[in-house]
Amino acid sequence: MNFVKIGYGVILCLIIGIIALYLSSFIPLGAVAIAIVLGIIIGNILKLGEKFNPGISFSEKHILSFAIALMGVNLNFTILQELGIKTVFFVIIAMGVTISSAVILSKIFNFNPKLALLLGIGNGVCGSSAIAATEKIIGTEKEDVGLSVAIVNFLGTIGIFLLPFITNIVLGFGDLKSGIAIGNTLQAVGQVVAAGFSISPEAGHIATIVKMTRILMLFPLVLVLLFSFKEKIKGDKQKFKLPKMPVFIIGFILFSLIPTLHLLPKESIEMIKKISHYSLIIAMAGIGLRITLKSILSSGKMALQIASIIFLIQILFSTAIIYFLL
To answer: Would the pTM count as exceeding 0.90?
Structure first.
């Protein structure tokens, strides 16, 4: 690996990432989404020389894979013990409804099915992390990745204020039901924490546990996608290859064992989480630098409309089930 060759692009992505982290203290959109937006702005305004391309490519591919592998430490399967079987089942069904609605909407509106699937996964599982972990398996364009991350985070930010109002005031849910609804609908952990604790500490705690359960569903979802996007072999009879397990997914699975089996102290796990988060921000800056405004303008409006409908379906389904059955 030529470190000098990739240096310019990686340093540029690193600088964008640092700025995004700083701005995230003032803008409730999240550092990951801000990094993409900054990357898009810089990449479209400045004419970056060829010397930046190897480093940008390295950031959006290898640093992203590294971030996804480390992301596994966010999965602690012992969390399932804190929820009843009924609630866990509800979380799984709601996630399936959200992702399925994205697929159906893509057919109704004749929209890019892979981008719609990313929007469904981002809404249904855990926002930017889920999009980053699945985009290579799905085989989406980098423009679609950046667009879906930005839109999902934007809707989640609106949801921070919308969900407490709907659950606590409009529907009159108590702390338990409000926490379940918020944890099962908002996209990012930070958004869930902000919305849940705005109601009460109990609602915040419940919302966080439910959200962690959704994050755990990323592991089986990845396996389902691997088999769904398996390669066909051309021949007299169509056969299928077993899906190739990407290295970053193997790392993701191995790192998920660390918190589940208590292989490292809590401080070490928190450090790995931070490294993963920072790496993801740098990688998203690289993806943003590759996105052209033309591509956003061509599909951005429809993508936002479809994502909004998906989010609305997610909210309606979750609150209806909670209201009538839980």
So the answer is: no
